[in-house]
């Protein structure tokens, strides 16, 4: 099945070559000069992109295969034997091994076996809870604040406020709220439920999820509010005449008409949660007992606390691979659905 | 199928700078099986009226009855109506069949096969059977329109409500769908309320037309009544294309005086003016097709200068300038008039309308002709008294 993109690109190409041939006939100039003008236009972007993004990425990619010495500023390829061949992938192998099934999944239960897999566990748990709740929560809040209610602008601002707060600030605020002598416990102590929410390995990740939701719901709410504006009123009216009650209108009109928003929100949420870092670091610095060590926290530690840059960049590329696969497949699925029309 | 009535309905919208009166004290009876067209300029309250019938708007005062039931405070789904929207309002994620069956799934206990049967019947009627598995996005405007109609038909409602259903279609398709809608109405015999701003649609489709302006009902009647016997100046100028010429004049008890021209009324017209006028100002109306070019000077005849000539093929539309104002006249396409020509034209007495210059109410209307056209050799039962072909009068053409 050919993608619509392909045909569009082809027609652009045709139009482009038609334009070029017309131009060379009308204006008698060599076509190289036209190309030069085009190149000049893209140069600023290419330069900035190369120097600040592409270059560092490629450099990091090379680093991920090296044993990097921060003090000397030089690296040696990190060789290891893999399937009987010597390859410079020692960083990757060290990170991934032992595989979690080799020690009966112990590295998923305790940070003392393989910290990478424990961080992956934390991140996946965090994502699995935060993404759906954040999306459904953002949707429900948007739905509630889309109607005619008093003071909806105040509510909207209130829900959006956490988004404007820096991750470090919200991490600190929540540490105050949830710590042993924090604000929350002032209320819980009289009923005997006081607990070190931020200080216990059992609850710290849950607390981190709470912070993630607190910030994420407001962000998704804004995206969903924008999406809701685009649904024509007539669809709701047609549904009312067709006999759909409120819930059925949400199910048959609102939800399916937000397809593009769902896609956008899901991709952003997954990418965002996989890379959760600021709140985790500010809230509990990866602890207690590594309970809030997410992948990026681990990368940060490996690079800047242990100066293992080669290993940290290798982790970063593993994370990139995961995020890329998610984004790419979500995108492909979306496209296939589009083609079905 | 059912009759329907609206009784003294008023709809007010509250806004910061005072209330807005969208519909003002509207009463309307719609007969069983009738095709009633609500027509008027934008903002006249026609759509609000339709939406009130549908239950999408609450009414401020008055009652709405469908059949013998007062439905004023009944939810849309319980009113036994179906509506076709201007932009079709098809559910984009559902197939054509899914769109058509949705209402039945929501409101009835019909089983799967019964629903499928009704959807197929409606699809066959509208010739969209092969589209049933497609999604709206894959359909043309005309096809979407049919699906929207299908969604309404499947419900088998007491009343069909249509809100400018043809205005998103191109001109050719609109004409075609107009005919199809009429055939469909003949076939189903369903009570229909049809909103449009297009007087051509109103004239060609309606069993009766209700003209609204500024939230008020101006007149209800058959298309021919609207054409021949407009109740006021608004209806007179709204119905008919090009629209009726209206010329301000004064009545001195004997004659109707225009700047530079005197119209001599017939005895009956003189009596009507003497009785009917509030003051001495009168607005004289004459349709472009009734202005007659004249060889000879004579009573009710004066000379104009043709400023613009619009050739339409079958007819030429002349814009004639005179001290009394601009008069539009249509003459047969074969008759050549050039821009700048001096033209003598007559206002035939039996084709002239007069309206009160202050209130706009009709004082007298033109003589109505209702004779079979030349060439009619057999008659069948037509629409109530509306057997005239087209709107023009065959008698008084030059």
TrEMBL record, chain A:
<dbReference type="InterPro" id="IPR000515">
    <property type="entry name" value="MetI-like"/>
</dbReference>
<feature type="transmembrane region" description="Helical">
    <location>
        <begin position="263"/>
        <end position="284"/>
    </location>
</feature>
<dbReference type="GO" id="GO:0055085">
    <property type="term" value="P:transmembrane transport"/>
</dbReference>
<protein>
    <submittedName>
        <fullName>Binding-protein-dependent transport systems inner membrane component</fullName>
    </submittedName>
</protein>
<dbReference type="InterPro" id="IPR035906">
    <property type="entry name" value="MetI-like_sf"/>
</dbReference>
<keyword id="KW-1133">Transmembrane helix</keyword>
<dbReference type="Pfam" id="PF00528">
    <property type="entry name" value="BPD_transp_1"/>
</dbReference>
<dbReference type="InterPro" id="IPR051393">
    <property type="entry name" value="ABC_transporter_permease"/>
</dbReference>
<feature type="transmembrane region" description="Helical">
    <location>
        <begin position="309"/>
        <end position="329"/>
    </location>
</feature>
<feature type="transmembrane region" description="Helical">
    <location>
        <begin position="157"/>
        <end position="177"/>
    </location>
</feature>
<keyword id="KW-0813">Transport</keyword>
<dbReference type="GO" id="GO:0005886">
    <property type="term" value="C:plasma membrane"/>
</dbReference>
<comment type="similarity">
    <text>Belongs to the binding-protein-dependent transport system permease family.</text>
</comment>
<feature type="transmembrane region" description="Helical">
    <location>
        <begin position="39"/>
        <end position="62"/>
    </location>
</feature>
<feature type="transmembrane region" description="Helical">
    <location>
        <begin position="204"/>
        <end position="226"/>
    </location>
</feature>
<feature type="domain" description="ABC transmembrane type-1">
    <location>
        <begin position="120"/>
        <end position="330"/>
    </location>
</feature>
<feature type="transmembrane region" description="Helical">
    <location>
        <begin position="124"/>
        <end position="145"/>
    </location>
</feature>
<keyword id="KW-0472">Membrane</keyword>
<keyword id="KW-0812">Transmembrane</keyword>
<keyword id="KW-1003">Cell membrane</keyword>
């Amino acid at each position: 099945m050919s993608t619509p993109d392909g045909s569009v690109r082809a027609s652009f190409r045709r139009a482009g070559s038609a334009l070029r041939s017309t131009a060379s006939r009308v204006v008698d100039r060599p076509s190289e000069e036209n190309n030069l003008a085009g190149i000049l236009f893209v140069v600023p972007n290419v330069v900035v992109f190369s120097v600040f993004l592409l270059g560092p990425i490629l450099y990091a990619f090379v680093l991920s295969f090296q044993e990097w010495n921060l003090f000397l500023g030089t690296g040696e390829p990190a060789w290891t034997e893999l399937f009987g061949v010597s390859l410079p992938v020692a960083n990757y192998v060290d990170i991934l091994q032992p595989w979690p099934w080799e020690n009966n999944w112990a590295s998923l239960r305790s940070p003392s076996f393989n910290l990478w897999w424990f961080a992956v566990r934390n991140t996946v748990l965090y994502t699995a809870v935060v993404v759906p709740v954040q999306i459904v929560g953002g949707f429900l809040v948007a739905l509630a604040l889309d109607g005619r209610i008093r003071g909806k602008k105040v509510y909207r601002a209130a829900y959006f406020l956490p988004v404007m707060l820096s991750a470090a600030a919200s991490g600190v605020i929540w540490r105050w709220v949830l710590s042993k002598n924090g604000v929350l416990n002032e209320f819980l102590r009289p009923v005997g439920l006081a607990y070190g929410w931020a200080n216990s390995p059992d609850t710290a990740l849950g607390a981190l999820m709470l912070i993630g939701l607190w910030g994420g719901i407001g962000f998704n709410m804004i995206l969903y509010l924008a999406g809701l504006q685009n649904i024509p009123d007539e669809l709701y009216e047609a549904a009312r005449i067709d006999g759909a009650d409120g819930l059925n209108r949400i199910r048959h009109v609102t939800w399916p008409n937000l397809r593009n928003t769902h896609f956008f929100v899901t991709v952003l949420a997954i990418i965002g949660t996989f890379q959760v870092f600021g709140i985790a670091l500010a809230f509990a610095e990866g602890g207690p007992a590594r309970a809030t060590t997410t992948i990026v926290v681990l990368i940060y530690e490996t690079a800047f606390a242990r100066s293992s840059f080669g290993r940290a960049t290798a982790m970063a590329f593993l994370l990139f691979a995961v995020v890329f696969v998610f984004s790419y497949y979500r995108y492909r699925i979306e496209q296939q659905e589009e083609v079905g029309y | 199928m059912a009759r329907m009535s609206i009784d003294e309905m008023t709809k007010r919208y509250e806004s910061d700078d005072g209330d807005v009166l969208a519909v003002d004290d509207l009463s309307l009876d719609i007969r069983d099986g009738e095709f009633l067209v609500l027509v008027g300029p934008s903002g006249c309250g026609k759509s609000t009226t339709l939406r009130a019938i549908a239950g999408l708007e609450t009414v401020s005062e008055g009652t709405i009855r469908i059949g013998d039931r007062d439905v004023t405070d009944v939810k849309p789904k319980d009113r036994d109506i179906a509506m076709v929207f201007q932009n079709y309002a098809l559910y984009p994620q559902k197939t054509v069949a899914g769109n058509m069956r949705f209402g039945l799934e929501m409101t009835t206990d019909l089983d799967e096969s019964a629903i499928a049967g009704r959807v197929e019947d409606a699809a066959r009627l509208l010739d969209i059977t092969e589209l049933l598995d497609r999604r709206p996005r894959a359909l043309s405007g005309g096809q979407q329109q049919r699906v929207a109609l299908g969604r309404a038909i499947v419900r088998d409602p007491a009343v069909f409500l249509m809100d400018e259903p043809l205005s998103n279609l191109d001109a050719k398709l609109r004409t075609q769908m107009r005919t199809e809608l009429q055939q469909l109405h003949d076939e189903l015999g369903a009570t229909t309320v049809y909103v449009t701003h297009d007087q051509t649609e109103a004239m060609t489709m309606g069993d009766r037309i209700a003209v609204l302006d500024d939230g008020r009902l101006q007149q209800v009647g058959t298309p021919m009544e609207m054409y021949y016997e407009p109740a006021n100046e608004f209806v007179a100028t709204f119905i008919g294309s090009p629209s009726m010429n209206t010329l301000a004049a004064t009545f001195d008890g004997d004659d109707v005086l225009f700047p530079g021209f005197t119209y001599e009324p017939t005895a009956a017209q003189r009596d009507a003016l003497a009785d009917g006028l509030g003051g001495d100002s009168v607005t004289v109306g004459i349709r472009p097709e009734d202005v007659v070019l004249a060889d000879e000077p004579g009573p009710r005849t004066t000379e104009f200068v043709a400023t613009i000539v619009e050739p339409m093929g079958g007819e030429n539309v002349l814009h004639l300038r005179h001290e009394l104002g601009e008069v539009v006249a249509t003459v047969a396409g074969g008759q050549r008039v050039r821009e700048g020509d001096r033209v003598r034209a007559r206002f035939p007495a039996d084709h002239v309308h007069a309206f009160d210059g202050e209130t706009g109410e009709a004082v007298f209307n033109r003589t109505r002709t209702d004779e079979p056209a030349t060439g009619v050799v057999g008659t069948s039962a037509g629409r109530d008294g509306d057997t005239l072909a087209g709107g023009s009068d065959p008698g008084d053409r030059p």
